[in-house]
């Protein structure tokens, strides 16, 4: 799945080869990856606060009459 | 000959309630609308000129007699911005006024969301304690039922319908890669549970089973043949597109309508090669179900192309067409955006989480899965899918993303607010909306192509509006200014 491919790409960048320059690159790439993750976590936290309670029941009771 | 593309969307909203065991979506929709209409007099929709069973292919099927929503006394109003807000098949439906550009359509499509949100606010004030209503701008309940987000385009009547079918079908099938609103689950009867929790690009694809046809509620066709122009039928066709998803993202809405309008202009001017698909319905499903956007479908000419490649064919021709026929700033912006999105889709579709609904939704689902270790079948993920479309700005997930600066905006909140009350200036919606606002008590009935005034004289005064591009601000603002009442207006119009 594309998401998995994307994650592999990030890991390849930060997992890298040995060498001082690469270490700096590794730290930069990891910080960027972490920053994105932090951003996403914040988004999820916000969404958690507005998401309807009791997902299972809410979804089960969402039924529509067919329209056009 | 390509004619100016007047466009409009009609969106059926999902409606549900908590805390009320006898929830009736038909009555609740009606209450929602009438509460919003408030002091606006209920304008009776003038059905005299409408014939929903008339088929573009040339025959008229036998009509089935059943009570219409109108007969049941359900809310059906025209708003001061020229929009129509009414009950259709147990859903509140909002039809935008006629718009003169894709960008203007975005404003009015979003204004519709605000109207629904405002209606909810009003209604919640009068509902008994513990009861809540929610409204969703989506197209599927995940249980086999679907409701539509339709687009309408003004097309030259002289263009053979067969050309529209041939050249628009591959376009509608392939545009899914940027118009899809995303959905968790594949509808249908599957042997394994898995399919009910698989992500796909669109909400609507599963409900389409035919290439061409008149139906809208079952055996839905990619090309709908409804022939109700609501305008001079010798000059105009209103192409009624039912296969799209309702979009929250402004870029997605803009591209959906803008590129389709441009494709139609090219069809009118016979500017397109034959890109017919061997099996359009199968291709529609296949493309919707491929999140990588790389699946190839077979064309009649033997080639196997991906949706993106098919779109490139249209874009390629569009660039030449625009340069040759209509090199406006508007068209340049549209083509530029279209090219950028196709390019990003080809390189990394998931990078478009600020522009496309399916990508934003997919991103949320994957993030939840990763953080909370959820299986695809987890109800929480299905709830995210649904609540993405909640119209309330404090609850809807798209709305929260927008508030958090996570989405690309094309229009301002001020423009959208204005669109709630003010009609487009460049179409007949201007005349309609302004009359509603200025002479609400003197309007006996109205439709898309007429206004019937009750001026206190013996006979009602019917003003036809058969030209979508007449009745603009330029044409009538002076007249409206000079007429303090409807009687004077009618006299001025008749003189």
Task: Describe it.
The complex is a heterodimer of chains A (68) and B (495). By secondary structure, chain A is an all-alpha fold. Chain A has one domain. Chain A has helices at residues 2-15, 20-50, 55-61. The model of chain A is unreliable at 1-20 (pLDDT under 50). Chain B is 39% helix and 16% strand. Chain B has 15 helices and 18 strands. Chain B has helices at 25-37, 102-126, 161-174, 176-179, 250-268, 280-288, 307-325, 329-347, 357-372, 379-387, 397-403, 413-421, 429-438, 473-482, 486-494, and strands spanning 7-12, 14-18, 44-45, 76-78, 84-88, 91-95, 132-136, 149-156, 183-184, 199-200, 208-213, 220-224, 236-241, 296-298, 304-306, 443-447, 450-453, 461-464. Chain B has a six-stranded antiparallel β-sheet. Chain B has a four-stranded mixed β-sheet with strand order 3-16-17-18. Chain B is globular, with a radius of gyration of 22 Å. Chain A binds chain B through residues 1-3, 6, 40-41, 43-44, 46-47, 50-52, 55-56, 58-68, and chain B through 12, 14-16, 18, 25-26, 88-91, 93, 141-143, 145-148, 150, 216-218, 242, 291-292, 348-350, 362-364, 366-368, 371, 378-380, 382-384, 386-387, 394-395, 397, 400-401, 404, 406.
List the helices and strands and how they pair.
The complex is a heterodimer of chains A (68) and B (495).
Chain A: H1 2-15, H2 20-50, H3 55-61
Helix pairs in contact in A: 1-2
Chain B: E1 7-12, E2 14-18, H1 25-37, E3 44-45, E4 76-78, E5 84-88, E6 91-95, H2 102-126, E7 132-136, E8 149-156, H3 161-174, H4 176-179, E9 183-184, E10 199-200, E11 208-213, E12 220-224, E13 236-241, H5 250-268, H6 280-288, E14 296-298, E15 304-306, H7 307-325, H8 329-347, H9 357-372, H10 379-387, H11 397-403, H12 413-421, H13 429-438, E16 443-447, E17 450-453, E18 461-464, H14 473-482, H15 486-494
Parallel strand pairs in B: 3-16, 11-12
Antiparallel strand pairs in B: 1-6, 1-8, 2-7, 4-5, 5-6, 8-13, 9-10, 14-15, 16-17, 17-18
Helix pairs in contact in B: 1-2, 2-5, 2-12, 3-5, 3-6, 3-7, 5-8, 7-8, 13-14
